[in-house]
Every structure is written in structure tokens, then in C-alpha cells.
Amino acid sequence: MDGPHPIRLAMLGRQGAGKGTQCVRLSHHFAIPHISTGDMLRAAVRANTPFGQKASEFMERGELVSDEVITGVVSERLGENDTRVRGFILDGFPRTVAQAGALQEILAPGGLLAVVDLDVPLEVVKARLFSRRVCAVCGANYSVEVFPRVEGICDVCGGEIVQRPDDTEEAISRRLELYEEMTRPLTEYYRRLGLLEVVDGIGSLDEVMERILAALRGRGIEGQVFGGQDS
Ligand code: ADP
Ligand code: ZN
Asked: What's the CATH fold of domain 7-221?
């Protein structure tokens, strides 16, 4: 039973800090699934399931869905084979101390290897969120700095580029407020567990990625080889 250990990571950081983008890159780098609770919830909303309809009411107001519901969703996903074998990078979960406690139970007897806190000042994320546009189909992000080749059309999939329904001024303010109130305490929680790496999120995508990788290397977390083959 001495195979490669699963790489289990989580990312904290304000809305608009660039978590999603860096998590996608890390998931490729380490060949681990990217588990974004926001993406999972938006998929449920698009599929118009009863669960999605309920969740969208909370999301559009910028409120959190209940700990119980989101923990159930994540728990199911973490029970699948790919995450058990390879590990994962969690994006948007945990977001409350109750969720962090539930995650410990789900992962016991193991646990997370590291938690990255992507640090970007409030004023910067506000500006980013107000200018953010997303592809309605694949979720690719656009902004005043990153715009599509053809206006309104996604470069990746040709889908329509829209403003997220929860990127209204009111919902943005509410989400940032809830971040300070409900999620900020997690930095202390994970610092006490010795898992926290605070990474400066200002800079180019490559610079930020390199900082994250350096922090993880410092903990002995490096891309690894699965099944005896290079990947
Ligand atoms: P943001 O970080 O910009 O709010 P996300 O895509 O991570 O965007 O999440 C969108 C919405 O989904 C949140 O505002 C919240 O309503 C809901 N959500 C996502 N993750 C969680 C979670 N762990 N707990 C509760 N609600 C969540
Ligand atoms: Zn797209």
C-alpha cells in the first residue's frame, strides 16, 4: 500500500481573487480533479433540478446555501474513485468553520495536505467582480483585461458571454461581507492546524501560479507519477 499519496488541497480567497483560474491550472499540474462548489451549484441551476432551483434563490442574493446541503454534495463527490486515489483541489469549499469540521470528518483518518489562501485586497477584487463576465455555457471568465476575440462570444466554446446573476452590486457586496464574517475565520483554523499557506494573488497568472507551486514545494508537495508512468 505504498503507492502515491493523494494530493488533497483546498483554496481560500475572496471572491474575485482568481481562485477558479488557479485551481484549474493546479488541477492540470497535479492531475487531480478540480472540485468547485460554485460550478457544481451552477450546473444544478442550469439543469433546473429542484435542488438547483432552491440553490439559485440563495446564490442570486449572494447568500450561502446551507452547510448541510453543500456538505452533502461535496461528500458525495469526495467518495468517488478519482478523488480517493489522486486527491483533489477544492475551490469554494469549505467556506464556514462548520464545513471545515465536516470536511475533516469526511477525510478522516487522512486530511488536507495544505490550504492556500490567495490574498488579494478588497478594492482590487471589487473592481474585478464589477467588470467580470462569464461564458454562460462553459464558465470561462472574461473581464476588462481579458476580452474575447469576438465581442460577446466565448473564445473557448462559442457560447454567449454574460454577467453572472450574482455579480450585481448588491450581491457582490453581500458575498464579500459574508466572506469576512464566515470564511475569514478559516485562515486561523487552518493556521492552527499548520496547513495554511498565504500567497500574494497580485500579479500575472503565471507569477501567482509559480508562488503557489513554490509554497507547495516547500511542503514537499510536487507533481507526482501515477501508475509508474510519466503523466
Ligand atoms: P463566489 O466565490 O464569487 O461567491 P462561487 O462560484 O464560489 O462564487 O459560489 C457562488 C455561490 O454558490 C455562492 O455565493 C453561494 O451562494 C454558493 N456556494 C458556493 N460554495 C458554497 C459553500 N461552500 N457553502 C455555501 N454556499 C456556497
Ligand atoms: Zn464558453
From this structure: Rossmann fold (3.40.50)
Domain ranges of the chain: 7-221
Q: Find out whether 64 and 182 touch, Cβ atoms under 8 Å.
A: yes
Enumerate the active-site residues.
19, 95, 132, 164, 175
Ligand 1 pocket test, pick from 34, 65, 141, 143 with the greatest ligand atom count within 8 Å of Cβ, gives 65
pTM score, whole prediction: 0.89
What is the C-alpha separation between 147 and 116, in angstroms, rounded?
Answer: 28
Q: How does pLDDT run across 165-217, given as a tens digit for each residue? A: 889 999 999 999 999 999 999 999 999 999 999 999 999 999 999 999 999 99
The pick from 14, 22, 41 for probing ligand 1's pocket by mutation, whose C-beta has the most ligand atoms within 8 angstroms, reads 41
